[in-house]
Write a structure and sequence with these properties.
The complex is a heterodimer.
Chain A: H1 3-20, H2 23-52, E1 67-72, E2 75-80, H3 86-101, E3 113-118, E4 133-136, H4 141-152, H5 159-165, H6 176-188, H7 192-199, H8 202-208, H9 217-221, H10 225-238, H11 242-252, H12 256-265, H13 277-291, H14 295-301, H15 307-315, H16 319-337, H17 342-361
Parallel strand pairs in A: 2-3, 3-4
Antiparallel strand pairs in A: 1-2
Helix pairs in contact in A: 1-2, 3-4, 6-7, 6-13, 6-16, 7-8, 10-11, 10-12, 11-12, 13-15, 13-16, 14-15
Chain B: H1 2-32, H2 41-51, H3 54-76, H4 80-84, H5 89-120, E1 129-130, H6 132-155, H7 158-181, H8 187-196, E2 212-213
Antiparallel strand pairs in B: 1-2
Helix pairs in contact in B: 1-3, 1-5, 3-6, 5-6
């Protein structure tokens, strides 16, 4: 591609970004594209050199990647030399991990990893089999941070917590968007505990978020006959065999005893969730924020099959206080992310005035 | 003078304003007629979401039709009647614009009252809330903005309309040519994005127009 086309493309994309976003994302986009243009120039030089050398018989030297050791906090990252912003991303990842795990982070070793930044125009790297992360080096710091935390983040070896969360605890789940989504999910859940929780019933919240011991989740999550019928309906869609007769009695005759039997018969892991793991993560995040630097240590040091006990210990407040605060955070988050904002309303009035001015300015009655 | 102009404008627009008011008063009741106490929030939201795109469409259509009706007699008569009036053009424009907005108030008020009444008679599940006044305000703003846009276009000369049309055609042509060289670009889509997002002039018409929401 010739340079004028590259420059035109750059300007076009930059202009588009400027219109749609703020100045910071624009700067990032320009920096990414500049790196890409540089990369293509390097490739062009290589290609030119290869063409020039095509007539000679010289065995090409085997390319061996040089790996640098990057130590940031507890991170030990080996990375090849590339424009990938590994150090900046590691610093940000370490900061996020520190904010999440607090003092306990010192007790949680991070896994050493090998990162390979690959050429954006190539199909892969030379260390693919050995590298833990193979990333195109035009990725943003934000994207790299998430990948570093995912690959090297600590493994607290906490089976109960992982079962409840559906994975390892990781920072970045308590964002405003995640909280707003959690509220929407609870409100729209087909089970009473979801919308009752949003309405302020904290016992319903415990059921919806599975905060009690695992063997009581079914009873806590589906307290109403309607909830159990809904479970039977969902189970009946995907399962047959032994449960089929019970499901039919539950739904056909609306027999609550049969519905309860269906709910009891289904394995905990196969029961529908009132709120998904992302919603539960927002509560853990709220507990850790509330509890400060020692929160994660208290979470680990509190042995209990009920997550409500552990979360309360982490937050340093009774579980009802934590749930009530979390509920308020969700409501505020919805207000923040709502698409209909005062800004759009004011802009609408502004545009109305602009179009009226256009009409006044029109030359319809002038001699034209 | 304003009242005299308003009276003529009412005569031109009443065939749009009155049926529009009746239609808009019916929409909230039609939308919520199937919502029952036995429904869970997700089902209620599905009903409301299905009807939601209708509101910005109706707002834009009402604004367009009233703007057309406002200028049609003047355009037919080559603006001779307006030129014979003892009033400056800017005042005439302001009177026409104000008259249009005032007349649009009738269907908007009908919609607001109908939305409020409809949610009073509808069992709304816990966790969901009704926003009749918020939706009515948004509808009023959307209708007024659509009216202002078409009012500005129609108040101009045919040359102005040709320029606007020319710009749209040029954007479409540029879009096609650019896609030949840079397949990932989408000028028309980008332009639409600028118009429909953030503080763009059509941002009001985007997003969720929900009578009932979480």
């Amino acid at each position: 591609m010739s340079s004028w086309r590259l420059v035109a493309a750059l300007l076009l994309v930059a202009g588009r970004s400027a219109a749609a976003q703020g100045s910071s994302p624009l700067a990032e986009e320009i920096a990414r594209l500049e790196r890409r243009v540089d990369s293509m120039r390097v490739e062009q030089r290589h290609a030119t050199a290869l063409v020039a050398a095509a007539g000679t018989v010289v065995a090409p030297a085997r390319s061996v990647a040089t790996l640098d050791l990057i130590r940031v906090g507890g991170f030990q990252i080996r990375a090849n030399r590339s424009p990938l912003p590994v150090t900046a991303a590691a610093e940000e990842a370490w900061r996020q991990l520190g904010g999440y795990f607090g003092d306990e982070l010192a007790q949680l070793p991070l896994r050493p990893i090998l990162v390979e930044g690959t050429h954006p125009d190539s199909n892969g790297g030379s260390l693919e089999e050995k590298a833990d992360l193979v990333i195109r080096w035009d990725q943003s710091v934000g994207s790299l941070v998430a990948q570093l935390i995912g690959a090297a983040g600590p493994d607290p070896l906490d089976a109960d917590l992982e079962q409840w969360l559906g994975g390892r605890p990781r920072p970045g789940s308590g964002t405003v968007a995640a909280l707003a989504k959690a509220r929407d999910q609870l409100v729209l859940a087909p089970f009473s505990t979801g919308h009752d929780c949003v309405a302020g019933d904290l016992i319903a919240c415990r059921g919806a978020l599975r905060l009690g011991p695992a063997d009581g989740w079914a009873a806590q999550s589906f307290p109403e006959p309607g909830d159990r019928r809904q479970v039977a309906l969902l189970v009946g869609r995907t399962r047959s065999g032994a449960l089929a007769a019970g499901v039919e009695r539950c739904l056909g005759a609306r027999d609550d005893e049969s519905c309860s039997a269906v709910v009891r018969a289904v394995d905990i892991s196969a029961l529908p969730s009132v709120a998904d793991q992302a919603t539960r993560r927002t509560l853990l995040d709220a507990a850790l924020r509330r509890g400060g630097a020692g929160a994660y240590h208290r979470l680990r040091a509190t042995p209990s099959p009920a997550m409500e006990v552990r979360l309360a210990a982490a937050a340093g407040v009774p579980i009802d206080t934590l749930l009530a605060d979390w509920r308020v955070e969700m409501v505020q988050a919805v207000r923040t992310v709502t698409p209909w904002s005062t800004k759009i309303g004011v802009a609408g009035i502004g545009w109305l005035v602009v179009f009226l001015a256009c009409a006044l300015w029109s030359s319809r009655w002038r001699a034209d | 003078m304003f009242l005299a102009l308003l009276r003529t404008q009412w005569r031109w627009c009443r065939t749009i304003i009155l049926p529009g008011a009746v239609l808009l008063a019916a929409v909230p009741f039609l939308m919520l007629r199937d919502v029952t106490a036995a429904m869970i929030p997700m089902e209620v939201m599905a009903v409301v979401r299905a009807w939601s795109p209708l509101f910005p469409g109706l707002a834009a259509l009402l604004g367009l039709l009233v703007a057309l009706a406002t200028w049609a007699p003047d355009r037919r008569g080559q603006h001779i009647h307006a030129l014979t009036l003892p009033v400056a053009r800017w005042r005439y424009i302001l009177f026409r614009f104000g008259g249009g907005i005032l007349l649009l108030g009738i269907p908007i008020l009908a919609f607001a009252l109908a939305a409020w009444l409809a949610v009073q008679w509808t069992p709304i599940p816990d966790g969901l809330a009704a926003y009749p006044w918020s939706l009515a305000f948004r509808f009023a703003l959307g209708t007024s903005l659509a009216f202002a846009i078409f009012f500005a276009i129609l108040s101009g000369t045919p040359r102005t309309a040709a320029i606007i049309l020319g710009v749209l055609v040029a954007v479409a042509a540029c879009d096609i040519v650019l896609k030949l060289f840079l397949p990932q670009t989408g000028l028309a889509n980008d332009l639409l994005g600028v118009l429909l997002t953030g503080p763009g002039p059509l941002a009001l018409f985007a997003g969720r127009w929900m009578l009932i929401d979480v």
